[in-house]
Design goal:
Number of domains: 1
Structural class: mainly alpha
Number of helices: 7
Largest sheet: none
Mean pLDDT: 82
Shape: elongated
Length: 102
């Protein structure tokens, strides 16, 4: 299940919260079945004990890995000033409300 869930998650993970919630419910159902937990029992500790990432955590990890592995410019490549933000990514500014919601 994990390999199917994480395939291309950096692309489809930001599609909508509804999709991520549906996948999280399926993931919880699978964990409860494997751990023998009841329908209303919490599976948070089982995720931690078995070291399994939730779909939201897997999306965050995949996007961070994608950003680090890409050739995105960092601030030190734009200018030579020694600032505290020199190692941060150079992000483009936006002017639309739709982009701000993402």
């Amino acid at each position: 299940f994990d390999s199917h869930m994480t395939y291309g998650i950096a692309l489809w993970g930001g599609s909508s919260c509804f999709n991520l919630e549906r996948i999280l419910l399926i993931q919880k159902r699978a964990i409860r079945a494997m751990a023998g937990l009841g329908f209303r029992e919490s599976c948070r500790e089982t995720f931690r004990k078995w070291e399994i990432l939730t779909v939201a955590s897997a999306y965050i990890l995949a996007t961070i890995m994608e950003a680090c592995n890409s050739n995105s410019p960092i601030n030190s490549s734009i200018h030579q000033h020694r600032t505290r933000n020199a190692n941060n990514f150079n992000l483009l500014s936006h002017r639309t409300a739709l982009f701000a919601k993402k």
